Amino acid sequence: MARRRQLYEGKAKILFEGPEPGTLVQYFKDDATAGNGTKKGIITGKGVLNNRISEYLMLRLAEVGIPNHFVRRLNMREQLIREVEIIPLEIVVRNVAAGSICTRLGIPEGTRLPRSIIEYYYKNDALGDPIVAEEHITAFGWANTMDMDDIVAMTLRTNDFLTGLFLGVGITLVDFKLEFGRLWEGEDMRVVLADEISPDNCRLWDAKTNEKMDKDRFRRDLGRVEEAYQEVAKRLGILPEAGMRDMKGPELMQ
Ligand code: UDP
Prior knowledge:
Layout: E1 6-9, E2 13-17, E3 23-28, E4 31-34, E5 39-42, H1 46-63, E6 70-73, E7 78-82, E8 85-86, E9 89-96, H2 100-105, E10 112-122, E11 131-132, H3 134-139, H4 145-167, E12 171-185, E13 188-194, E14 202-206, H5 216-219, H6 225-236
Antiparallel strand pairs: 1-2, 2-3, 3-7, 4-5, 6-7, 8-12, 9-10, 9-12, 10-11, 12-13, 12-14
Helix pairs in contact: 1-6
This protein binds uridine-5'-diphosphate.
């Protein structure tokens, strides 16, 4: 098959033109970055696992009425998605303090928050994704108040659903980041969940030991990064059919 036209390459994914208008192919790479691109590395098999984990979570979320861009998985590293106009916001939900909220507000890591907190960041690499208030979002027209009502409602439901789902497999959902996009159907527009949900953009801790099972293992050089991603997939019951043997893809023979 002729190679599809590449539309965009991000830090962890590539977007290709899809087979029909209004669709895209999302390709998951093994590349990992942290600190807004200052730390770079490869997590072998991450793309395969995140493709599978994100497929599973998006399908489960669709079942409970949270609309999203996922159509179907195409192969080990690619999934077909609906083309959306990405809203330039990172929506972060926190249940337990970790990462930037600890440094920003001086809260010890691991503190259970009095209630789930939603934060907004303006998606702009050149500016280092600064935290913003809803005032900035509506004043600068990144989203309107109706969009924000939809985004907050979907985000809270996603948090409730995923918290329960992960707890069921012995994992605490500490925090995570969502992105939303506008899906156009003729004249109609609705806001839907987009991007991916995986250990790249969630903090997942073992519910008993609080051991980190997410990208913080890479960010903080904790080791056993690949194993952590595999363990999340294993607990969700979705390790790729072929098992770990096929995670690397073809290897060049010397
Ligand atoms: N996150 C993300 N992409 C970003 C920034 C954060 O996916 O560009 C996720 C991150 O994995 C974590 C949550 O959002 O699950 C909160 O991240 P935080 O603000 O604590 O920033 P970090 O410590 O990751 O820099």
